[in-house]
């Protein structure tokens, strides 16, 4: 029996835009910059503003899709080593989010942990979150940080700074072919 939170019932959203945002953050970190380039930040804000309310919702759904795909990959990688993805990924994620109090308010951390656990057990993170009402403005940066941290975790495991981005672009290419 299928759960109402099964990913097959979830909107995919704008995965390309969500990936662009996460990849931009990854490149900023790997270029050794301590903060976002003001020009790049202005362009990103302009891009987000150009989306309108529906477009922003699509990017939110796309970010949740990224989280789902990243957690699916991490679950398979951990299971191949006889490990539980929840046990090894969630505590590290929560610990890192807690070290980011300017960007991630403490009250957003349980939601982000819940999204990751939902994805880790094969549920749709956006449908899981939808049970609790609309997204709040305070959850936007934590959501982006969660997707970023999962991507960075994949990149560290594979020892390849582009692995997580390539994982998504390959999946998008396969979808386009179908």
TrEMBL record:
<protein>
    <submittedName>
        <fullName>Uncharacterized protein</fullName>
    </submittedName>
</protein>
